Amino acid sequence: MPNLFKDLPATAGEEDFVELLSRPGVRIERIVSFGQSTPPDAPYDQDHDEWVLLLRGSASLWVDGDGEHNLRPGDHLMIPAKRVHRVTRTAANEPTIWLAVHFCLDARITPPAT
Amino acid sequence: MPNLFKDLPATAGEEDFVELLSRPGVRIERIVSFGQSTPPDAPYDQDHDEWVLLLRGSASLWVDGDGEHNLRPGDHLMIPAKRVHRVTRTAANEPTIWLAVHFCLDARITPPAT
Question: Side by side, which strands form the sheet with B67-71?
Fold first, then answer.
């Protein structure tokens, strides 16, 4: 039985992205952060909607027009397509585990079916 | 900020289903159980695939052809369409919180867009 809280990456290194499920139009992934944040000069600006749920740890997420959110486990929000956003902080002393659901309605970014 | 672990239902009563997000082809819901199980004579037999993630509590899930799984927080699995399944147990002394993603590819059950 796969478990979201197991097989965590080592603390030092890049953010870790694991695809859990991919269907036409939808992709679910686990993201593990360990103190990383999005570079201020390279925010996310995606062509698709993304729903994120913070499961463990803590983070701050800035969303254009909406300000900065401090996220605790259980917090979730939808980030609409083309809404510029940036993770400004993730916990430095513990892993921060996210679940992200990408709604890839744009054919250009529809992932292959599994 | 909505939080999956807040606004839990009272302990006595029915299982609680809250729709978090609905798109053409995809529906995400939170389910809170408190000791309930699926009646043996009325198992689930769905026309669509469902991905489930157990977030808190514990449960046992029987899936036809696959046996019984004991689920702990973080465990997740895909239940294919038409695969008969049944929740045989959920924790009696604490809420069991699930995240369910329904892939409603069949037009008959595509939910309305929000």
Answer: B67-71, B59-63, B85-90
Nearest CB among A4, A25, A51 relative to B53 is that of A4
Q: Which residues of A touch B50 (CB under 8 A)?
A: none
Kindly list the residues of chain B whose beta carbon comes within 8 Å of any beta carbon in chain A. Answer: 1-6, 20-21, 23, 25-26, 28, 51, 53, 55, 69, 71-78, 99, 101, 103
Closest Cβ opposite residue A51 in set B21, B73, B76: B21
Q: DSSP letter at A5?
A: T
Q: Identify which of B25, A3, B46, A60 has the alpha carbon closest to the alpha carbon of residue B63.
A: B46
Report the alpha-carbon distance of residue B61 to residue B77 in Å, rounded: 10
CA distance linking residue A95 with residue A91, whole number of Å: 7
- Rounded to an integer, the average pLDDT of A47-54 is 95
C-beta separation of A60 from A22 below 8 A: no
CA angle A70, A84, A95 (to 5 degrees): 40
Mean pLDDT is lowest, of A23-27, A29-33, A47-51, A107-111, for A107-111
Global pTM value:
0.89
